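Note to self: the last two entries modelled the partners one at a time, which told us nothing about the interface. This time every component goes in together.
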Amino acid sequence: MDKKILFSRMLKSKFFMVGAVLVLLIVLLSVFSPFIVQFDPVTNSLKDRLISPEYFASGLSGHVFGTDDLGRDIFSRLLLGSRYSLFIAAAVVLVAAFIGTILGAVSGYFGGVTDMIIMRLCDIMMAIPNLVLAIAVMAILGPNIFNLIIVLIVTSWVQYCKVTRNNVMVVKNAEFVKASQVLGAKKTHIMFRQIFPNVTTQLIILISQQFGWTILTEASLSFLSLGVQPPTPSWGNMIADGRNYLITNPWMVFAPGIALMITVLAFNFLGDGLRDVLDPKKI
Amino acid sequence: MENNVLLEIKDLQVQYVTERGTGNALNGLTLTIHKGESLGLVGETGAGKTTAALSVLNLLPKPAGRIIGGEILYNGKSVQKMSNKELMDIRGKKISMIFQNPLTSLNPVFTIGEQISMVIRKHEKCTHRQADEKTKQLLEEVGIPGSRLHDYPSQFSGGMRQRVGIAAGIALNPELLIADEPTTALDVTIQAQILELMKKLKTQYDTSLLMITHNLGIISELCENVAVIYGGRIIEHGPVKDVFGTPLHPYTAGLLGAIPSLEGKKERLHAIPGKIAGATNLPAGCAFHPRCEMCIEKCKSQVPPMATVRPGHNVACFVKAEGK
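The predicted structure of the combined assembly is written out below.
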């Protein structure tokens, strides 16, 4: 597609613009968080516990979103927590997409026994509830960030595999594939240079949507204290910490909760927007 | 004559095995193409035209399609016995193909220039720039401005895309060009343009042409010789003038009788009764016998051999071969 057309479509799609701006903002905030935060997000300071939000009354040097039950600044924890969330999500999505796409492409292109083995593997993975598997694995391997990433990859590659496989199967019967065979192309060339570029659109959309899902799952696991471990801040364990103070000091839950909601929403919007932008049927 | 044979198909038998049964697509197809010759292969849908073309390149859909007998010799060398590498060198460089549907035979995600120069770069050692230069020339030759090199297939019309397909087909000056119904998906005026183009290129590049079609008009326009295929076998073969002027096989006569004529008295079109012989249950003997008006007892049990009736004009029919 022409770059000009792509650009004008991006500007026209509201979903894409909202999603892209929000995602960009979140990523920038988390990347530059060390320069923004004024407080140590990990050390306790019990004399400052449960201060209610000052918002921007005293600028960034005040407790913008208040403090938690151990006197830690919630705004600082929120920003540094976003680094873990985004890093984990990025690692998981990229590796899972890589594995899933390759397996899916091989499965769809070669078919036959290869296809059957890979697809049954997918079926098995899909039959196990993701969260249950994650809990089981984390309980056995012990909760740390590396294991968390592994678990999330194991549970999410299936999606990419199925999507890629189905698309490859459609594209591989197209006449242009036969044409390139006739013109002397090798199998690897056909698979990666002819077929693969035709399925990337769906992959890009899936990746951006999976980003939101991964952040949410990571938060769920951290909430169950099977993910990122305290005192390292993560939105999931921040919500878990605030649970007991929900009635008396609701900001402890609201800040990470709303941050989580906005982030997941932003990635979902981006995914929907990308679908509109990259839709070849639209003119 | 014998020494400039380019492609020789000898008694080729191809089977398609599917869950619904076994189909005998080709049942002893014998065909020869000489250097510089242009041969038309005519037949109804399902007669085995495309199967023949694909077997030449050893590209039958796997695992369903199989060659169970016969031989394909390209320049005296058996295609079935070639290694993968040899095959890949032949495909595109020596034997090339133009496809039926130009809307689907180009990859939508690459520019047309990229697609043609990919073919050139695959077979010839040259830089991107040289390949692009050559692509530009090719495009100009098939009537597309070279400035459209960087446009995507979706920005072209059907006829233009077929021109691109032809440019990719002739990119490496192949010895044999197989055109699988190249004009079927195009409307009549564009068909004429494409045929003109192919005619021009054929003389210019001195390429042998195997034209697969069910349009008899195209054959008489473009080819010197014609082979009529029915039930996976060649039933009549000869120079276009002879075959279309005095058809011998009742099937060929039927085909020609089914074309409305623009001149003379208006009369009912002659139709061939019955349906085309299906590949799954081919009749014994001559495959055409259930539909044939001249059928004799022998036709029902024995396959008629090719017999030369006059120089270069052969027919596989007991009645016609004896009555010469």
